[in-house]
What does this fold into?
Amino acid sequence: LLKSRNPGLIPDQIEALLKLSAEDRGAAGWDRYFGAGRINAHRALMLASQEQATLPVALLRSPIQGQTVHAIVNLQGTAAGPGFASWKMHYASRTGGWILLTSSTQPVVDGPLGSLDMKSMGDGVYAFCLTVTDTKGRNLTAIAAVLLKKPMIKVLSPPEGALLTLPNLRFDWSDLAGADFYLFSIHNAAGQKMVERRPTTS
It folds into this structure.
């Protein structure tokens, strides 16, 4: 429908026009329940006219929607194009409000848009929102929700209560995906450390 009005539109521009022309619902702006709002086809067609379809691009390439992350999230994408003025990157948990991570008035084309160290944050679903503002004050957004799951150690063997002998000792472990560094230690009944070692294989 929009390409019939303006055949030169590319997919990113069509997505931007649909979001920009949507009727806001729920909380002001984008929200997790209504997204950008309800589609307004008539308004989108008006915006798709040749003289008004030159819009900047808001595109998140990394992380992707639904991705599982472990610690540090590096954000990549595009915030640039005709009429570009500025961009902002926000993040939020499932229950919290949007928190500004970074912003700039410099365009970015398929490049870094900031990073977030999530090591001290609780496991769960988080969302990242890139907002690009054009010279007319219009906002275009790109959203990606991710699952934060930090590494955990599960000792598979030896079983709890087993009699250990040194130095012939073997540990099996799992769930270390995303760990930058890990080690294990063995303590005696008095709490004294007997062994501390960084495994070389898993």
